[in-house]
Every structure is written in structure tokens, then in C-alpha cells.
Specification:
Elements (H helix, E strand, L loop, with lengths): L1 H6 L1 E4 L4 E4 L7 E6 L10 H19 L3 E6 L17 H9 L3 H18 L15 H13 L3 E4 L2 E4 L1 H7 L10 H8 L15 E5 L15 E3 L3 H11 L3 E7 L3 H16 L4 E7 L2 E3 L2 E2 L10 H6 L11 H9 L7 E2 L2 H20 L13 H13 L4 H19 L7 H18 L13 H17 L3 H13 L4 E4 L2 E4 L1
The structure holds one RNA strand of 74 nucleotides.
RNA sequence: GGUCUCAUGGCCGAGCGGUUAGGCACCGGUCUGCAAAACCGUCUACAGCAGUUCGAAUCUGCUUGAGACCUCCA
């Protein structure tokens, strides 16, 4: 695995190009990913980012890295945006639902946990919450003030972007130039407390109707909306760690400001590799709450999205997502989901077929090369679509072996079996379909199919077809294969 | 308006200068009492116009179209 570790290449948003992945400490990876704000149930687009970073986490683990994966939960409303508007999303949800802020957070945290289970996400090493780290946030703000990169005005603290730009590059991640930003935003902040339009809040003085308020050296208030990630990543991963991830829409200003906060307090960029997952699209447009074109992960499961005429399992949705690269847009369409559903079953069938294959003295194809292609794909910036294509190449060969047209040796068979299983289930995070889940139905079906088998032996096609049609009406499909009859 | 990204066959989606991506659909075949399923095989591309190059989907320029960010956002 060490050799494979050395081959890993990651696209670093900070550099705008792929580069070899060299962890700060050999064999260890510290990874921080921005998690959800729990003022509502995460929608499918939110889930795509978490599924993609789950894939990355899983592959790093498979390569043998010891990974500390921190993904935060935002349970404090982000009080202001840079236009100075009040946007405490959690507080707003709390008022709308007539609950306390933490009730809202807990309510949706439970749902998020459930979704992670259903979509087969590995739990992160730590899931810290913002409200449990107010003190750490305050301490970092104090440090930034002490370093001269922030100032207090009337109970609020702002990051001093102009002062910061004298020593550091603001815009290093997003490529934004402050003077380009200015023309647009200046007017919005005319009567702001800020010294400069690009300054952002680290701490915001409390409003009378705020639902959550904390004490601070500057009076009662709320933390700004970037500081929590700086506080928590620093606490659990150190001032500098390996990978910082999140959705592409967080690149600016959230991640840019995290960098500014880290540089402003500790003098260094918090992460060496910045990774950004792309958005999920519906009809070519980003799925988003504000566009109203979003739907919930469980609506796909029960078929109530209104967009598709049937439901899909979490497994199919996950496989569908694995067929696009994490840095690409992905369009959520019914045809694409249907294709994923069929493809997935073809793939899992082939893995099951491996169990029945009889080895030959020699292999008629290069199994080792095939397995290497799995690693090659994933080592190239986690290129899951290529991996999937290679798994389908293996699928084709497995079926040919099963038909006696290709051969595989015993050691090669063992290798292929292991790697197919590992890559499909451990790395891609697909789930083995629970066979025979309807335990009470199984013996009944056995009996029914047995009777139908007898009818077929007697060439009593009327009875045989009657049974088949009757079962079809009950939603059970009978398949007459070469090796007997199966149903599903 | 500013910054940036992308335009691939019926659909989804890889590709980063020379090789079949892959899946689904279609079509042909194998199997089958029939059907379905399964398996095998095959076809359809690179938005447009110029340029660089022995060679371009892949590099450059322009045109057209779409999207993201600049407000909360995964």
C-alpha cells in the first residue's frame, strides 16, 4: 500500500492543478470538511458533497493512511453576511417552527445521521459543533486582534482586510482581486461599521431578538460565520493540516476567509491541499434551497420527488454519483438514474458470479493489470468514473469466464475477487443488496416456483404462465435462467 | 456589471496532443416452450469559425450557448 500511497495525485484548488499528495506526517492524513448548517434537512445536493468526501475518506483509508477526518456541524446561525444583512438561518427556522435554536439543530441532526446511514457514509473521526467551541473562537479572534488584523467597533469585531493585504495575499484561493470586488459591493455597505468594504465580521454584537447569545470580551454577541471552522480545525487537526474540503460554493468567501483568519492568527494557511466538490444540478442548474429546485434524499427513496415516476435506492443514487468526477457538475435526471440502476445490478451480479467461477490452470487475460487499473484511476485525483469503467471491464471478463470463453487461474481469481469487492463496497461505498430480505416470503416463493417448475416439466404452459402472470401482478418478476428460476 | 468554468454520440458521463472510455437506450446474436431476464457483439461524438502542429475532442484566438461565484449556500 505504501507504493500506492506514493502514487496519489490530488487536484489542489490552491494551485489550480494536480500535485502529488505528500502528507505532513508520512502515513497520516488530517482532513477537515465543512459540514451542514442544520436549520433544515440536507437536500440531495448537500449530500453529494458529503458522499464525495466519503469516497475520498474511504480511498485514503484503503491506501492504508491513518486518517483523522473532522467534519463540523454548524449549529450557530451565521449572523451576518458581508452585505450586513441579518441572516441567522437557524434562528429564523426556530421562529418559524416555534422551537428553540438547539431544538432545530437536534431535530435535523438526527435526520442527517439517518441519511448518512442510508447513503452509507462512514462516520467522521470527529463531528464537532460550533456552539461547543465558542471559547476557542473567541481566543482566535483575540489573537487576530493582537496581531493587528482585526478591530473592534461598538461590540462587534471585524477582520481588517486592508491591513491583512499588506502582509498576505487575500484572494489566494479564489483568485479574487479586492479592487474588482469593490465596485459592486461598496454601495451596499455605505453606512456600515466596517473600515473597508471587504472586511468581514469575526464577532457580531447581539440583537435583542437573537435566539442564541454568547458572552465575549466585546460584550454579548454571536460569532461570525467563518471563525468556527478555523477554531475547530485548529483544535483537532492543528494549525496546519493536510486536506481541507467543502463544496465549491464555499470557496469564496468562506474558505478564503478561513485562510485569512489562520494567517492572521497563526501566520499560515491552514491546509496544504484545498479540495472542492462540484454541485449537483437539476435541469442544468445548481440544486439549491433558494432556487426551490431541490428535493430531499428520502424523497428519492420513496419516489415522492415529483420529478421521477419511480423511486430509487440509496445504493443506486450513490452509484450514479460515482459515475461522475467529484469536480464535475452532475445532472440529476431520470434516464441517468435508470442507467445507473441497471449498471449497478450488472456490476453486483458479476461480483456474485465470481463466487461460482471455477479456476483454470492459467489465466487468459492479465488480472494484475486490471487490478492496477483500479488503483491508477483512483490515484489520479480520485477518478471514480474511470474506476467504474474499469470495474465494468472486469465485469465483461468475468462474464466471459463464466461462459467458458476466457479463463482465470486460482490465485488470479482470489485477487480479482478481493479487489472487486474492496473497490465496489469499501471504496465506492456501495452496499450489497440484502438478499432474501422478505424472509417470510422466501419459503412461499420456493413452494410456488417449485409447483410452476413441475408444470413446466409437464409442458403445462397454461398453469406455468398463470403463475408467472399472477406473480407479476403482485410485483414479483420471475426469471427462468439456465440454472433454474429466480425471482425479485 | 466583474471574475471564473464548461460546451462530447439518443441520455448520463470519462478524456489534458497520436490509442475502444464506461453505463443506459437502439440494433444484431446466444439462451429460452414463449416472454422477461441474463450474456456476447455492433453503431451513432467531440457547439461554430479560424489558427498552431506531421497529427487536436485535447493547445491558441474569436463567435454562440450554458453554468458558478461576487448575498446564505454542499
Amino acid at each position: 500500500m505504501k507504493a500506492q500511497q506514493d502514487q496519489l495525485v490530488i487536484y489542489n484548488t490552491l494551485k489550480g492543478e494536480k500535485e502529488p499528495f505528500v502528507p505532513i506526517v508520512a502515513g497520516r492524513v488530517g482532513m477537515y470538511v465543512c459540514g451542514p448548517t442544520l436549520y433544515s434537512e440536507p437536500h440531495m445536493g448537500n449530500m453529494r458533497t458529503f458522499i464525495n468526501f466519503d469516497l475520498i475518506y474511504r480511498y485514503l483509508l484503503h491506501l492504508g493512511f491513518s486518517v483523522k477526518y473532522v467534519r463540523n456541524i454548524t449549529d450557530a446561525g451565521h449572523i451576518t453576511n458581508s452585505a450586513g444583512q441579518e441572516v441567522d438561518s437557524i434562528g429564523a427556522a426556530a421562529k418559524a417552527e416555534q422551537l428553540q435554536s438547539l431544538e432545530i439543530v437536534y431535530k435535523y441532526a438526527v435526520k442527517f445521521q439517518e441519511l448518512q446511514r442510508i447513503y452509507n457514509l462512514l462516520p467522521p473521526s470527529i463531528e464537532p459543533t460550533a456552539t461547543q467551541h465558542i471559547q476557542e473562537q473567541i481566543e482566535i479572534i483575540e489573537q487576530i486582534i493582537a496581531n493587528g488584523y482585526a478591530y473592534e467597533v461598538n461590540g462587534s469585531v471585524y477582520f481588517d482586510t486592508r491591513r491583512y493585504m499588506q502582509d498576505f495575499n487575500y484572494g489566494i484561493l479564489s483568485g479574487r482581486k479586492v479592487d474588482e470586488l469593490e465596485n459592486e459591493t461598496r454601495t451596499l455597505n455605505a453606512q456600515d461599521e466596517k473600515r473597508f468594504f471587504a472586511d468581514f465580521a469575526l464577532w457580531k454584537k447581539a440583537n435583542p431578538d437573537d435566539m442564541q447569545i454568547w458572552r465575549s470580551p466585546w460584550g454579548n454577541g454571536n460569532p461570525g460565520w467563518h471563525i468556527e471552522c478555523t477554531a475547530m480545525s485548529t483544535k483537532y487537526l492543528g494549525k496546519q493540516f493536510d486536506i481541507h474540503g467543502g463544496g465549491m460554493d464555499l470557496k469564496f468567501p468562506h474558505h478564503e476567509d478561513e485562510i485569512a483568519q489562520s494567517c492572521g492568527s497563526f501566520g499560515c494557511n491552514p491546509a496544504r491541499y484545498w479540495m472542492h466538490a462540484n454541485m449537483l444540478n437539476v435541469n442544468g442548474q445548481k440544486m439549491s434551497k433558494s432556487f426551490g429546485n431541490y428535493f430531499l434524499p428520502k424523497q428519492i427513496l420513496d419516489g415522492s420527488t415529483g420529478l421521477f415516476d419511480k423511486s430509487y435506492s440509496a445504493n443506486v443514487v450513490r452509484f450514479f454519483m460515482m459515475q461522475a468526477h467529484y469536480r464535475s457538475n452532475l445532472d440529476f435526471t431520470q434516464d441517468a438514474l435508470n442507467a445507473a440502476e441497471k449498471g449497478l445490478s450488472k456490476l453486483t451480479d458479476a461480483i456474485a458470479t465470481l463466487e461460482r467461477i471455477q479456476p483454470a490452470a492459467q489465466s487468459s487475460f492479465d488480472v494484475n493489470m486490471l487490478v492496477q487499473s483500479f488503483y491508477k484511476a483512483m490515484n489520479d485525483d480520485f477518478n471514480a468514473p474511470i474506476l467504474v469503467a474499469n470495474l465494468f471491464e472486469a465485469t465483461r471478463l468475468i462474464n466471459l469466464v463464466n461462459d467458458g470463453k476466457e479463463h482465470i487461474s486460482s490465485p488470479d481469481l482470489a485477487l480479482l475477487k478481493e479487489k472487486m469487492t474492496v473497490f465496489a463496497y469499501d471504496v465506492l461505498g456501495l452496499q450489497k443488496e440484502a438478499a432474501g430480505s422478505e424472509s417470510r416470503l422466501a419459503p412461499v416463493m420456493e413452494l410456488v416456483l417449485d409447483l410452476r417448475g413441475q408444470a413446466r416439466t409437464n409442458k403445462d404452459w397454461t398453469t406455468s404462465d398463470q403463475i408467472r402472470d399472477g406473480l407479476a401482478k403482485a410485483g414479483i418478476v420471475v426469471k427462468d435462467g439456465k440454472d433454474g428460476t429466480t425471482w425479485s
